[in-house]
Structures are given as structure tokens and as C-alpha cells.
Amino acid sequence: MLLSALPQARATQTQQRVEKPLRQAVDTRQSAQKTVDAWRDDRERLTAQYELLEEEIKQLQERHDDLKVAVEATQERLTSKKDQLQEIARITGEITPFLDQLFQQLIEVSRSGPPFLQSERQQRQEKLQAMINDPSISVGEKYRRLMEGLLVEAEYGTTTEVYQDHIELGGQPTLVDVFRFGRLNLFYLTLDQASCGFFNEADQKWQALEPSALRPLKSAVAMAAKRQPVELVSLPIGRMVQP
For the chain, what is the mean pLDDT? Predict the structure, then answer.
């Protein structure tokens, strides 16, 4: 019995000596395969991340280039605007005295000649003065409105009109029809049309006209008020007529 057990024990030992390296080799191969598989997965994952990052870098570079172009364009516009502002400041500095001269010219024009529509013209001048002193109004707008004011004054020289006003006659304020003949002459006709006269610029006062001037002045007033057709009349224009 003992002799038969020895060969069997030796066979078992031999099998164990053979199987152990095989198992170790298989375990090693399986471990290596797992490592390779893990590396492959990591490589694929990292490759995907790398490609994604490359795409992001490309997009960021394109955006950077676009922003750079936009910044350069903005800088050019800012430089241009800065030059424009400097030019505007220079022109404004040069034109402001000119606007003051225009306004003074308007004042002088309105003061020359007989005193007609004084309240209306005074209000216009006050509004223009306030406009000139308003920094929120552009130089161009100030120039335009000043020229409009001068144009209104100029148009007085080519028009006639009739309006009612209180003037001093005989030391008393009297409501009359005032006939403006351009910028040259002012005449008055009392509301009862019984007397008439003119503004004597030499004496700066209203002065009566002789009765012979009453009829042509009535016609002139009616024509200016569009109450009768236009016709030739003879008025004492440019004469200092004593009653």
C-alpha cells in the first residue's frame, strides 16, 4: 500500500509544479490585458479631450482675432471721434463770437427805423438771447435761429401791415390803427378816422398830418387790411410835415 501511494504523491507534486506557473502566467496575461485595455480607454478618452480642447482653442483663437479686429476698428473710430470733437471745439470757439455779432446786429437792426411791433420784437430778442446762452443747443441750431430772426427783420422792409396799438397823442395813450410801410414809415389813423399822423424819427414822437393826408392814408390802411383792391396812393413818405 505504501509503495503504490508514492507514485501518486509524486504525480500530484509534479502537476502542481506545472499548473502553478501556468496559472501565474494566465493571471499575469489577464492583468496585462486589463492594463492594456485601461490604457486604451484612457488614450481614447484623452484623445477625445485633446481634440475637443483643440477645437475650443481654434474657436477661441478665431474669437480673439475677431475681437482684435473689432477693438482696432473701435480705436480707429474713437480716434476719429476725438479728432471730430477737437474740430468741433475749434469751430465752436471761432463761431461763438460770430453768433454774438449776429445777435448784436439783430438788436441794432431792430432799433433802427420807427418803433413798430415793439412787444413782439422784444420777446423774439429775449428768446434768442436765452437760446444763445443755452449750452444744450448746438451751434448750428443757434446760427439757424439767429438767421431766421434777421430774416424776419429783413422781411419787414418789403411788407406792409395794419395793427392796433396804443400811442401817445396829446399826452394821452390812444388806441389807433397803425399802418407800417416797410421799415421806413409808421402812420396812425384814429379809430374814428377823423385824424391821422406819422412817427417823426427826428423828434422820436408821433406827429399829426394835415387833413389832406387823411384820404390817401385811409385807402392805404384799407389796402393793407385787404378791405379794398390795391391802387396807387400818395403818402407823405420821407417828409416832415407840420399840421
Answer: 83
Q: Is 185 left (phi over 0), alpha (psi -120 to 50) or beta?
A: beta
In degrees, rounded to 5, the angle at the alpha carbon of residue 78 between the alpha carbons of residues 73 and 84 is 125
**Amino acid identity, position 188:** Y
Backbone angles phi, psi at 136, to 5 degrees: -80, -10
Question: How many Cβ atoms from other residues are within 10 Å of residue 223's Cβ?
Answer: 17
Q: Please name the residue that has the C-alpha cell 446762452.
A: 133
Nearest to 214 by CA among 186, 228, 235: 235
**85-117 residue pLDDT tens:** 787 777 777 778 888 888 898 888 888 788 888
Q: Fill in the DSSP letter of residue 176.
A: E
pTM (global) more than 0.70 = no
Return the H-helix or E-strand segment holding 2.
helix 2-111
In the chain, % of residues over pLDDT 70:
88
Round the CA-based radius of gyration of the chain to a whole number and report it. 53
The per-residue pLDDT for range 14-24, each reduced to its tens digit, is 666 666 676 77
CB 165, CB 176: distance < 8 Å: yes
Q: Return the domain boundaries, the chain.
A: 94-156, 161-224
Distance CA 195, CA 202 (A): 21
Q: Tell me how crowded residue 5 is: count the other CB atoms within 10 A of its CB.
A: 9
